[in-house]
Amino acid sequence: MTSATATLTTPWPADRVWQLIGGFGSLPDWLPYIKESRLSEGARLRTLTNEEGGVIVERLESFDEQARTYVYSIVRAPFPVTDYRSTLEVVDLGAAGSRVEWSGTFTPDGAGDGEAAALFEGIYRDGLAALDRTLAA
After folding, report:
1. How far, in Å, are 7, 9, 21, 110, 133 from residue 128 at the CA level?
2. Are residues 62 and 72 in contact, defined by beta-carbon separation less than 8 angstroms?
3. Average confidence score pLDDT of the chain
4. E-assigned strand segments in 43-121
5. What is the set of domains in the chain, with CATH numbers?
6. Most CB within 10 Å of its CB: which of 1, 13, 62, 68?
7. At 45, is the secondary structure helix, strand, or coil?
8. What's the rounded mean pLDDT across residues 50-65?
């Protein structure tokens, strides 16, 4: 197993951040390279379409509104990994704002550990930078 993590500390309150990113179908609201998210299977499966027309299918594994976190896995995607499982969490920092943590574990398949880790670190880092811009807008 290999892992990747990125974090964003923001002055925005945790509830505001969670309101934007906490919906399993909300990626297009803050992640510009995801153009569409279609929910199915009782909102437990999301089919994402990126700006190049590629399709990624992900399954919601667990969701905790109180803890402001959810865990999902990849069902189908053009990534060189298997057994992908990721967590998106918003941590309340009180008057200091909040911290968003996006992390994942996976088994590289067709790529080395470093290459696969760098791929997802980049996706998470770029995604959190987009979130920061969306919150500031």
Report:
1. 7, 10, 11, 26, 9
2. no
3. 96
4. 45-50, 55-64, 69-76, 81-92, 98-108
5. 2-24+63-136 (3.30.530.20)
6. 68
7. strand
8. 95
